[in-house]
Amino acid sequence: MALNYNKNTLSACTSILIGKKATIGGSTIIGRNEDAKASWPKHYVVHPYETFEEPQKYVSNDNGFEIKLPRTRYKYSATPEWTDKEGLFEEDGFNEYGVAMSATESAYSNQRVLGVDPLVENGIGEEAMVTVVLPYVKTAREGVMRLGSIIEKHGTNETNGVLFADQNEVWYFENGSGHYWVAQRIPDDCYAVVANQLAIQDINFNDPKNFLFKSDIQEFVNDYNLNPDRDKFSFRNIFGTHDMSDAIYSTPRVWWGQQEFSGKTDEGPESQDLSFIKRANRLLSIDDAQYYLSSHFQKTEFDPLNEGENNKRYRPISLAKTQESHVLQIRPDLKPEIACIHWLAMGVASQSVYVPFYMGITDTPEEYKIGGLPYDDKSAYWTYKLAGVLLDSHYQELGQMFQNKQKDINISLRKKLRDDDIKALGKTDEELPEFLTKASNDMAHIALDGYKELIAQLITDSTDFSPLNFKTDMNL
């Protein structure tokens, strides 16, 4: 996530993309943690299909970016900020055609490139991307092309990576300067994990099935002598950075995911040469994607929950600044309304649970549409955040109880989703929206009720941990 942060603030996101032949069951999967502020609520909404009499215009409250929009807007879901004072930041969701989009993975361009194609102050940024792209495309590839054309025409004020998926394809899009961009299709049998660096490597300009790009990018790079390599066109090397903050802040998160999914190698967590595209040593599941986004270097000396001199060396994937984490799953051989599942974890992923919502819903639970500053006990965001805050001071004492409750809730959600899938297949097109909305709301309340029980137990068990406590002699 960007939110007008510069590199020195080191507040950003982590992403995962998985092709359909790399997953159990053939789903395409994209997911990301939206990281910005420790207390900054998110909502979850559904915008209905709408046709306007006049063309619409979008004006950003963030940086003044303006664009005319088509008269027809497809139905889509999103997770906007609790206030639009600094912009919408809708971030992630599905549209009615089963296209998934997540924006953005913040990255950084080198000064050599920005010197000849600077970022555009009032160009498109993360704040607007989902809002002006997702409701107007019918495939993931169309999403890539629409965003690319907007950046070419209007410029962008940030360096970003954007995730797209539909039932057949998964794409990762990156812009490397004010107007230049590339996108690569994740091979069906592969995955990628990304963490705040430009990630795409060698571009095959003769393979339009798997690579898209601004048409004159080769000429641009040649004209300004930007390519440091003699015999290849590596987008990462030409446009990206390779400094110490990358080695400490970004690459360890990529390294951990690749070690988990592809097996142990001799590569170190600070390596600047980790591959973008990887093959896993097994078929990956929705649980693997969620495990990655909720991870913090488990089973290594770098886990901040452990004691040791290296436990704070690297920035973990799941951290206090996560506003929400999402995994967008598109299952095969089902109509989009049932196939597309928006797994949404409000707050810190490792302390929350991913609640499944069908794409075919017409509304979201009231708890997901409320909550601002300060704390609001009715808000879904704040319910999950409160549980994490209560756990933070007593991980050693309460962590196992917390994890056991998370597991119980996750099992209940998966069982309910399986049962609802079966029932949904028997519904008519007229019955389906109401059924999917109720089913999703019920799953949201299973999780919320479970967390309210968890909060009550955390408060009860924490009462004896006060520093004002004293062990009284039983003889007194």
Q: Explain this structure to me?
A:
A six-stranded antiparallel β-sheet has the order 14-1-2-16-17-18. Strand 12 (170-175) and strand 13 form a beta hairpin. Helix 9 (380-392) packs parallel to helix 11 (432-462) and helix 10 (395-424) packs antiparallel against helix 11. By secondary structure, the protein is of the alpha+beta class. It is globular. 30% of the residues lie in helices and 18% in strands. The chain contains eleven helices and 18 strands.
Judged by helices, strands and strand pairing, the structural class is alpha+beta
Secondary-structure element string: EEEEEEEEEEHHHEEEEEHHHHEHEEHHH
Rg, please?
22 Å
Spans where pLDDT lies below 50 across 5 or more residues: 2-11
The largest beta-sheet arranges its strands as 14-1-2-16-17-18
Average of the residue pLDDT scores? 95
Largest sheet, strands/sense/barrel: 6 strands, antiparallel
The fraction of residues assigned to DSSP E strands is 15-25%
Q: What share of residues is helical?
A: 25-40%
Q: Roughly how many Å apart are the termini? A: 58 Å
Number of helices: 11
Molecular shape: globular
**How many strand elements?**
18
